[in-house]
Amino acid sequence: MNLATQKRGSQLPQSKLTEQKVKDARREYIEGRQKIQALQRRYSIAGLAERYGVSASCMEKVLARKSWEHVE
Length: 72
Description:
Helices cover 56% and strands 0% of the residues. The protein is built from 3 helices and no strands. By secondary structure, the chain is an all-alpha fold. It is rod-shaped and about 70 Å long.
């Protein structure tokens, strides 16, 4: 059997995936990674500092309780 006639993907009897499921899973993975990256940027020290209008070093001190330590 040459490469042109070999069964692949959903043509194989043991296959649990279809070509469409593979496409969907790949799309979901990419979309999920993009969402995670956006959230990481939003909740990073730099992202929080930007939203609250302070420097990153100020926000880092706040989060590490080196400043504003009296606030729970």
